[in-house]
Amino acid sequence: MSFSIGIVGLPNVGKSTLFKALTKKQVDIQNYPFCTIDPNVGVVTVPDERLDKLAAFSHSKKTVPTVIEFFDIAGLVKGAHEGEGLGNQFLSHIKETKAIAHVVNLELIFADLAATTRRLEKNARDARAGVKEAVAQKATLEKIKTALETGALAHTLSFTDQEIPFVKELNLLTSKPILYVLNKKTGAKNVEGVTAYLSKNNLAWVMLDANTELMLGELQENDRKEYQKEFGLSEQSGLDDLIKKSYELLGLITYLTTGEDETRAWTIRRGTKAPQAAAEIHTDFEKKFIRAEVINWQILLDAGSYAAAREKGLLRTEGKEYVVKDGDVMEFKI
To answer: How far apart are CA 89 and CA 106, in angstroms?
Structure first.
């Protein structure tokens, strides 16, 4: 399963610096447009304190975290939706990702508006040719076009069950989940106004200083703590917040398995049932699923051992209809 976030925005706003801080991968971050024509891809570990605690609990030989892919996509410029500055190539890279971070909305809206207008023109031809679906699709397209013209994003609209497959087919950029990353060094001057707007409209956002995060990531642990103390910086990394919110944005949760061999985090979509969660380990587990033994990670740690948890009745047996919860520790019976 691919979980990817595209980092996009205007040139020189700190996208590649943010990407480098996230992935510790060396990329060219010189301050000029089109420095990163092809998207750089980095695989980033999702921070999860539960993993280390369970590994210590089970005396595991190794731990395996879950990950997200971040794409550093070259800077968009005015007119990108019309092909300016290699814009079509950049926009196609964004389409390949599951969600968007550090977005410049205007160019994405223009790109979707152009695509919707072209589709409406085709729709009109189809309607004249007697294509039955064209009438229903026309209403959907006009709803999207009207919203885009007012500056709204496609993902803020509501669609009927009948409309959803067609909207997915359109693959609009603004229909993707969006996380707004406010870079303190290069972001808007009116930070309080921006954050108030984002919060009021229930939009996901995170604030950080990409340059500081990059510098802290290159320091040894003791030096990093000293620097954070001296300048009154939180020990909680803004990058960790970004990664966690990106994970949530994609509608993902984590269940865990633990034992002497390994403790591992498994990524599933929210709402996944036990047999499908088991399939992440091996496809045969879904086919041969009988039941699962389940316990919350913290309850297991508090119990002190599996035996104690079982004796206290804390270890539950769940069947095929069980919807897995974030933080469940699971053992599947097949």
So the answer is: 17
Question: Cα(94)–Cα(181) distance, rounded to whole angstroms?
Answer: 16
Helical H runs in the chain?
Answer: 15-23, 49-58, 87-95, 105-128, 133-149, 164-170, 191-200, 210-217, 221-230, 238-249, 274-278, 283-287, 297-303, 306-311
Output the pTM of the full model. 0.72
Task: Summarize pLDDT for 166-200 with one digit per residue, the tens.
Answer: 998 888 877 888 888 877 764 445 667 767 777 77
Q: Would you state the structure tokens that stand for residue 232, as one six-digit string?
A: 């009154």
**3-class secondary-structure state, position 180:** strand
Secondary structure (3-state) at 150: coil
Distance CA 193, CA 304 (A): 48
The DSSP string of 270-302 is TT-BHHHHHTTT-HHHHHT--EEEEEEHHHHHH
| Dihedral Cα 43, 47, 53, 56, nearest 10 deg | 30
For residue range 60-75, list pLDDT tens digits in order.
Answer: 999 999 888 888 876 5
Full set of structural domains in the chain with CATH: 1-48+66-251 (3.40.50.300), 271-333 (3.10.20.30)
| Residue length of the chain | 334
